[in-house]
Amino acid sequence: MTGLIDLDFLKDFEENLDPKKGISKYEMNILGYGEISVVFEVREQEGIALKRIPNFKPEEVEAYIDLFHEYESLLKEAGLKLPRSDAAYVLRGDKAILYIAQERLESENVCNKVIHKIKNDEFKELFLRILNELRKVWDFNEKSVVTGTEIGIDGQISNFALKNGDLLYFDTSTPMVRRNGEHQINAEVFLRAAPPIMRTIVKRLFLQEILDRYFDFRLVVVDLLANLFKEKRKDAIPMLLDVANEFLSEFGIKNITYKEIEKYYKEDAFIWSLYLNLRKLHRFTAKIFGMRYEYFLPEKIER
Ligand SMILES: Nc1ncnc2c1ncn2[C@@H]1O[C@H](COP(=O)(O)OP(=O)(O)O)[C@@H](O)[C@H]1O
Ligand SMILES: [Mg+2]
Q1: pLDDT at 22 over 80
Q2: Which domains occur in the chain, in start order?
Q3: Which atom of ligand 1 is nearest to the CA of 170?
Q4: Which of 88, 252, 264, 301 stands 20 to 30 A from 226 (CA)?
Q5: Would you say 106 and 112 are in contact if contact means Cβ atoms under 8 Å apart?
Q6: Which of 33, 170, 295 is the best mutation target for the ligand 1 pocket, counting ligand atoms within 8 Å of the beta carbon and taking the most?
Q7: Can you give the pTM of this predicted structure?
Q8: From the CA atom positions of the chain, what is the Rg in Å?
Q9: Which residues pair with residue 18 across a beta bridge?
Q10: Is 62 exposed, middle or buried (0-12, 13-18, 19+ CB in 10 A)?
Q11: Which of 15-24, 38-47, 130-139, 143-152 has the lowest mean pLDDT?
Q12: Among all ligands shown, which has an atom nearest to the Cα of 29?
């Protein structure tokens, strides 16, 4: 704990929040949306990015926080640089709401912004730096033969930021730790964010696959490259593909093709927009039937 969280403030914040309508008594400056979280800053807590993840059972949330701290220390042990952080929860009815706080990074320095104002050569260089961070994770995981502990990482460009010349990785709110091959994260929390009709499908077909891919070096790089379609830098993909393949060949990893990335992106975009649309439908029915709805949803994600 680094004391970034003011628990009294969070309690007051939660008491005065209506996620269904997206209304708070505090002015929320939304920094980003995740699959299950919303990231924002309020004037009362300036300099801090708050990530709100609802719908925990009270008995689950402390284990999740422990895993979060463990994940961050494993990433640091692997050699990655992270922003300062803290975590706490607030009880609300029979649920717990998790808050992860981080030092707020300059939005301009988050890498999916950076890539729109640099030259091709600089983009290559930044991309190589990211690959090197990912490589640290894989070097760390090599040792799991002895330790049994592996970490996963979401290498997308929007998860890294520059600060004083350092490249920081900040998407740590989904702690991906595998011990003796078993995912330590309580995936139920993610399932709960999905609309009921989708839960069984997601659970059966995707969940294991979605989690596993963060532990596979090649797939993490495919995901990073494919995400550049969404970030509107598709033009840079062929150039970066060469950089990636040269890098990966050192590890004896099979070359990635443009076609593969395109296909991956299309499938991924389909799954996530289906997911978002079903969640909106779920929110709509919750409104009609006067039920609580705990999540903040983005209106539209540009693809
Ligand atoms: N500490 C931070 N400072 C500034 N912006 C942030 C911070 N953390 C997250 N964001 C913004 O919110 C977005 C989503 O946050 P992230 O931690 O990547 O969560 P997710 O798991 O939802 O992708 C980021 O891409 C970034 O734009
Ligand atoms: Mg992210």
Answers
A1: no
A2: 15-103 (3.30.200)
A3: 17
A4: 252
A5: no
A6: 170
A7: 0.91
A8: 19
A9: 23
A10: middle
A11: 15-24
A12: 1
